[in-house]
Amino acid sequence: MKPKFWFAIAGAAAVLALIIGLVTIFSTGTGPRGYVDKHFTRAAHLDLPGDSDNRAYTSPLAPSAVAFQISSKWRPQARYHDSTGIYLRYPDDAVVVQPHLRGSVVHVLDVDHAYRRYHSRLGGVWGWTSPHGESFRGRGPGAGK
């Protein structure tokens, strides 16, 4: 066989591998949002109002077991728990695991919406120091120095 044939076969295999890789990446989702979507039962009736990016899921497991399962796969930047639930913060998303019936409800929401909704509990814990989610730097000349 001629070398051109083998180059054509190698090129076709590379294109096929690229297509399969892209489909796998974009169909399964990445990060905690994709993980929760893949491993828990969607419960649209429990979505929090006011955020179209919010998604609610349920699990028969206790909140601590659910939070452990998620955080062992996707390590959060910050974690906080109290009697109302377990709060996991990621760069773009927040995962809130709360008791629900005999299991848990898992809310995956945008981190900014989580800040607005749960600031009274998490304001000082997750590193937010101002009422608008700003850090101590970057608020203008001389701020935070």
Automatic annotation (TrEMBL):
The keyword Transmembrane helix applies. The chain crosses the membrane at residues 6-26. It comes from the Bacteria. Keywords: Membrane, Transmembrane, Transmembrane helix. Pfam families: DUF4247. InterPro entries: DUF4247 (IPR025341). The keyword Transmembrane applies. This is DUF4247 domain-containing protein. It comes from Saccharopolyspora hordei. The lineage of its organism: Bacteria, Bacillati, Actinomycetota, Actinomycetes, Pseudonocardiales.
